[in-house]
Amino acid sequence: MNLRRTRFPLIRLPNEIEFTMYIIKEELKCRHHFQKLREIGFIECPFEPSLDTLILQCFRLDPGIDEILTAYNQIMDKRSKKIEPKPDSIQSQALKAYIDIKDLKKKLTNGYQSQDLSSQ
C-alpha cells in the first residue's frame, strides 16, 4: 500500500483539533471562493459567511481585540490565496493556518505575560 497516496490520516486527531481544522478548511474555502468572485467583479456580497469568531474562540483568543483580529485575518488571507486545484491543497493550507494561529496565540500570551511582569 502506498501511504503517500492515502486520503486518510495516519493518526487520529483529538476531536477539538479535528473540529478546529474542519472550520478552518471551510473558512479558507469561503475566502478563496469570494476572492475569486471579487476578481471577476462581484465586489459586495451580503451572503459571505464568516467563521472567524468561532475559529478564534476555538483557540481561546478574543475576537474583540484588534491586534488579534488583524493578525488572524493576515494569516487566513495568506493561506486562502495559496489554495491550488490539488486534492490536498486545502488540508495543507488549513494545517499551516492552524500552526500559524497557535504561534500567534503563543506570541500574544508571552507578550501579555511580559507586560504583566513589567507593570508590577
Primary descriptors:
mainly alpha, globular
Walk me through the structure:
The structure is a single chain. The N and C termini lie far apart (60 Å). This protein has helices spanning 15-39, 52-58, 66-81, 89-118. The protein has a domain at 18-36 and 50-109. Helix content is 65%, strand content 0%. The protein is mostly helical.
Provide the fold topology.
Elements (H helix, E strand, L loop, with lengths): L14 H25 L12 H7 L7 H16 L7 H30 L2
Main beta-sheet annotation: none
Which spans have pLDDT < 50 for at least 5 consecutive residues?
116-120
Instruction: Tell me, briefly, the overall form.
Output: globular
Q: What is the typical, i.e. mean, pLDDT? A: 85
Radius of gyration: 17 Å
**What is the string of SSEs from the N terminus onward?**
HHHH
Distance between the termini: 60 Å
Strand element count: 0
Summarize, please.
This protein has 120 residues and is mainly α. Helices cover 65% and strands 0% of the residues. The chain is built from four helices and no strands.
